[in-house]
Amino acid sequence: MNDELSMADYLELVQVIRLRYGYDFSGYAQASLKRRMVRFMGHSGMPSVFELKYRLVNDEAFFNSMVQYLTVNVTEMFRDPAFYRTLKEDILPKLAAYPNIRIWHAGCSTGEEVYSMAILLKEAGLLDRTRIYATDLNPANLEKAASGVVQLEYMKEYTANYIQSGGIGDFSDYYSARYDRVILQKELRKNITFFQHNLAADQVFNEFQLICCRNVFIYFNRELQNHVLKLFYDSLSPWGFLALGIKESLRFTEMRNAYETVHGAHKIYRRKR
Q1: Which end of the chain is more exposed for a tag (fewer CB within 10 A), N or C?
Q2: Would the pLDDT of 23 be above 80?
Q3: Residue 272's closest CA among 219, 215, 229, 223?
Q4: Fold of 81-271
């Protein structure tokens, strides 16, 4: 197998995926996605691009494994603790003014950050009147997220993150250990709805006071970033909050003037009227 993928082959693969399965990767950053396609060919033992195309067209299970590989699933509970401390100290008190709170985690991966939000809300006394919608392109991610199961080996790191974020409880109270895994408390899961949503193609489905889409933008090209920021703008209530990843920014997007910066270091913005 060649360690490079021609642009023609890359574009044809993107088209095959869109036409056969309805997944549109045309707005993803090409260099990054091409690299992951090449790695997937090596990982799956594909001898040629022709063979890869054939398998994609004729084997849906193979396609699902490719989507699992192509979509980046790097996540952790209370990732960037200072961000969560800012949410806890500054953003949640503002959300508390709403009788009912709606939060969207877009690109939620396997759910660790969604459950982190649920813990913050519980400690702030807001969980019972909050509905969290957690969406992802990858159905395998959503299935894992909905299970509430996390590998035990990660909990030491997650506990440290929780403490640094200003958690006020005993983190171990939020889960039960089962051999090499833990299952998160049922109360944390009851107000979360997990479902598939494609940021590139799907529409507004509710009005939210807070949207978290962290560490997803960096995999989109500028055109798709603008599209998604418009989708988020239309999905936010007036003065609703948008949280991006630490390495992401609105600065060079067409929608930069539609939001005001609330916390520049933590990439928290607010929708202007």
Answers
A1: C
A2: yes
A3: 229
A4: Rossmann fold (3.40.50)
